[in-house]
Write a structure and sequence with these properties.
Layout: H1 12-19, H2 23-33, H3 35-38, H4 40-51, H5 55-68, E1 82-90, H6 94-102, H7 104-111, H8 116-126, E2 135-137, E3 141-148, E4 151-160, E5 164-174, H9 177-198
Antiparallel strand pairs: 1-5, 2-3, 3-4, 4-5
Helix pairs in contact: 2-5, 4-5, 6-7
Length: 199
């Protein structure tokens, strides 16, 4: 089963609407099942197979249980590593943003003053013999995904009405909570710089 993209945003009202029961009911069900000892996969399967909960809700309830019982924190994966996303609305159309990502001079101007490891990771991903390309779907979005220092970075730009766009930087499989916060801070600064560069 796939983990919900942002399970920390799941509300008790949404769980009740989808399952007919409040979240605290499901936490009690998982306590009775012994979910803390049996693990995430067994808990989610128990909800789906034995209680008829849809797969998405089973995952969301299991994540909420793990957080409520101190087994997982916000942005933490089942394997103990962390994911974090930072987004920004941009005052420029998709092709302009894709151009900044893809062209070295534009990218260097954007990233001037940003975290050195962030700059190096993006530069290395887009140049050299193992270079990746910024994939653009005209009028829709642009995306690049690359490994760096044991984790993965994905930049996703989406076209918005009125000649605008938005960007989400997601860093996956970060080793520690402290490193997660460092990544969040570095990408917030970088995306703010990108907004200024495009203005």
């Amino acid at each position: 089963m796939a983990i919900p993209r942002e399970p920390e945003r799941v509300s008790g009202a949404r769980i009740r609407a989808r399952t007919g029961h409040r979240l605290d009911h499901w936490l009690e069900v998982l306590d009775a099942f012994g979910a803390a000892a049996k693990g995430h996969t067994a808990a989610a399967l128990h909800l789906a197979a034995d209680h008829g909960v849809d797969r998405w809700s089973a995952q969301a309830i299991t994540v909420a249980f793990e957080r409520a019982r101190g087994l997982r924190t916000v942005n933490q994966r089942m394997d103990g590593r962390f994911d974090v996303s930072v987004s920004k609305a941009l005052p420029a159309p998709l092709p302009r943003v894709a151009n900044v990502l893809a062209h070295p001079a534009e990218r260097a101007a954007w990233l001037r003053g940003c975290d050195p490891a962030l700059r190096k990771g993006l530069r290395d991903a887009l140049s050299g013999e193992d270079a990746r390309a910024v994939r653009v779907r005209a009028g829709k979005d642009a995306r690049i995904r690359y490994p760096v220092d044991g984790h993965t970075v994905e930049l996703h730009v989406v076209a918005r009405p009125g000649g605008r766009s938005s960007i989400v930087a997601t860093v996956l499989r970060i080793a520690t909570a402290a490193a997660k916060e460092a990544q969040r801070s570095a990408w917030r600064h970088a995306l703010e710089r990108l907004k200024t560069h495009l203005a």
